[in-house]
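A further point concerns the way the authors explain their paired sequence and structure data. Each protein is reduced to its one-letter sequence and a matching series of backbone shape codes. An entry of this sort, consisting of the sequence and the corresponding backbone structure tokens, reads as follows:
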Amino acid sequence: METALLKYQTVEEKMRQLVATLPEGARLPSERMLADELGVNFLTARRGVLRLVKEGLVWRKVGSGTFVSSKTPAATPEPSNKRIGMLIAQHSDAYAHRIMQAVAGVAATQNLEISSGWISDYGPAAQRQIDFLKEQGCISVMIPWFEPSRASDVLALAKNSSLPVAHPQIMFGIGDNDSATRRARIFIQSLCSYLRHDGDDLLAYLGPDHADNGFLQQRLGAFSMHCASNDIPHAIGLVKDGSSPMNQLAERWATHKGRLSVLAYDDDHALRFMTAMHRLGLCAPSDYRIIGFNNTDGSRFSDPPLTTVAQNYNHVAGQLVRNALDLATGKPAHYEEMQDMPLIVRESCQGRSFLTEDPSLRFPGLAWRIESTPTPAALAPA
């Protein structure tokens, strides 16, 4: 009985997450599809959905499906003749949910309908989901986020799909080597220049040990070329999941105490590294400097608050939707010129001092802003 309840709660939670990312009127996956993708029986899936129906979050129409409820029932939106599918990985994280929410917002402003489905992999089951979305009238499919280690699987899925597939590797120009290399080079060079602005620290790049991660390959290539071309001492640390690999790396890099600057692949790796260094009695920015990526909630409340590069979620979502529409009509994917990325300057590096002294400083590809330190009241639990 306890196991069945946990499975039901899992279905309910997944559906709540999905509803939060979709516009009003969006069609939800069928109960049989939920049961198949989440590994539960049909009755368990139905029980999870019925909870949301009773709360008024979704509504059902016999023979048509289940839809996200309108927050303003009196409003009657004009019907759309364009429907786009969205495949959502079961292991989506907070970053993925932000992208999905932004996609839903962009689609709503363009009067586009969204049909979504959960996927647990990018093989035959995902192909079946795409076929089902095609039967629902979708003209293309978006994959707003996927696990970096599954990049090759996503490319294979897109190649064999019955519908055009828009995904991040297209959005950021991974397939356009010249454009992608240029973007990564400008971005990485500026971050390295920022970290070494008033010192000669050893530069280090920290990221996941994922050989198939196209984004990682781009950034590592740009980092290595920049350091080699400018005769900058540097190190690269690629770590697997878990605390032990990160602790071992921290012990090796701790030998550079006082002259180490770390550029992290994302906030998660940055925060894990900071935790590992705390174990050794070392703290940023006195013993080392570090910058993250994605500006997650945890970065603001870490000790010390993490300097990080923020994402423009609406811009990313807009480009994803645009590519989905272009691909549906046979047009090539659209590559936009790189916009300046917001660098949120907090406490984990020494940028506050020299940026305050010279606010005219510019770093190509970056638009920096200093963020105030959270007050004790803000840090206190609600």
